[in-house]
Hints:
The protein has helices at residues 2-13, 59-62, 143-157, 170-173, 178-185, and strands spanning 19-22, 36-40, 76-81, 84-90, 93-98, 109-113, 116-119, 123-125, 128-130, 135-140, 162-168, 189-194. By secondary structure, the chain is α/β, with parallel strands linked by helices. The strands form three sheets. The protein has a five-stranded parallel beta sheet with strand order 1-2-3-11-12. The chain has a five-stranded antiparallel beta sheet with strand order 5-4-10-7-6, with no helix packed on it. It has a two-stranded antiparallel sheet with strand order 8-9.
Amino acid sequence: FSFCERIRKLAKADGISLSATIRLHQLSSEAPPVDRGVLMLYNTGSLYNPDTENSILDSNDVKPYLSKHIDYDLPLTAAYPTYAWAILLKGGKFSAILHKSDFSDRSLYREIGGNMFEVVESHYLENHQLLVGDRIRVEHSSMDEIKKVKGYVESSFGSSMNCIIYHLDSLNLSKYSETDNLTILKRNIVYLHCKS
């Protein structure tokens, strides 16, 4: 906090405001000495737990933190995910995050149920060696989950909270229908994190 106070003072002298990422568990703690907070509604689950179905966004992970009205001593903006990734599991343990999320090549991967794939031919991907038997858990941000979490946010903070879409690009938006895109984009967006 003392670091934030010093940076905030320096930034304010140059007309710059300071924001901090606020994780869900921090909502029950003292707010940091910054001008605004960004409520992190992504990476809500554990990457390291092999039983996790979706570490990017799971409304069941979010709900306990947003089950009542919250008076947080800092203006907040809600950040919702639209990205996808894959988790490489070796021997049932987390090994790496892969940015590829399409594993439809049956010469390399076999679907083993839900969002899980098994490597059937050893190869390299994104500088990682994938061996026969390694597993890959594909994760994405579904519109249903985003809507559920947005509902929890609105019931805890009111419906006027601004939104950040993380991150906005044609590949991410192509996963959603036009109606879903409008749902994401229609209200209170203050920042679109665009990947270059």
